[in-house]
Every structure is written in structure tokens, then in C-alpha cells.
Amino acid sequence: MEGYLLWNAEVEAARRLARGFTDALPWLTTAQRDDVERVYVADRADASRVMLSRIAARAIELRGEYNERYHRLRARCVAATVVCVGTAGGACTVVTYLAR
């Protein structure tokens, strides 16, 4: 749903810009104005489609990178926990052995 709304907002923005562009050209006939607006909206929609595709691809790429970093960090935390527990267990064993 979000993608649909985003795309409709892009198309509406392109239409607004096209109207603003043709309003600056008062000598255009109605048919010419409609043609210029149609071409402008189509060009803007193509540019937006390319941009949104690039953003989506980058988001997928970043998700992969962050997942990889998370898994490495998690492995390091587990390893550090194992070392700390092992060290604490060894220290308790040494203290118990020396106390006898």
C-alpha cells in the first residue's frame, strides 16, 4: 500500500510541475499544452521509476550488509561470553582448590 501511495504522489507531483511549466508558456495552444504536459509527466515518471528502483536495490543491499554485521557481532558476543564464563569457572576452581 505504501508503494502505491508513494507512486501516486510522484505522479501527482509530476502533473503539478507539468502544469507549472506549461503555465510559463502562454503561447501554447490547448492541444500543445496537453502534449507538453503528457510528455513531461511521462519523462518525470520514468525518472522517478529509475530512482525508486535504485533506492530499493540499495535498501536490499544495505539489509544484507547489516545482517552480516549483526551475525558477526552476535558471534563475537557469544564467544566473549563463553570466555568469561570459562574464566570465571576456572577462577572458582582455583580458589576452591587453594582453599583446601
Question: Could you explain how this protein is built, in words?
Answer:
With 100 residues, the chain is mostly helical. It has one domain. 92% of the residues lie in helices and 0% in strands. The N and C termini lie far apart (71 Å). The mean pLDDT is 92.
Cα(first) to Cα(last) distance is 71 Å
Quaternary class: single chain
Helix content: over 70%
Q: What is the count of distinct domains?
A: 1
The whole-angstrom Rg is 31 Å
Sequence of secondary-structure elements: HH
Largest sheet geometry: none
Strand content is under 5%
Q: What class do helices, strands and sheet pairing give? A: mainly alpha
Helical run tally: 2
Note the overall shape.
rod-shaped
The stretches of 5 or more residues where confidence is low (pLDDT under 50) are none
Instruction: Return the average pLDDT rounded to an integer.
Output: 92
Number of strands: 0
Notable traits:
100 residues; 92% helix; 2 helices; mainly alpha
Quick recap of the structure?
This protein has 100 residues and is mainly alpha-helical. Helix content is 92%, strand content 0%.
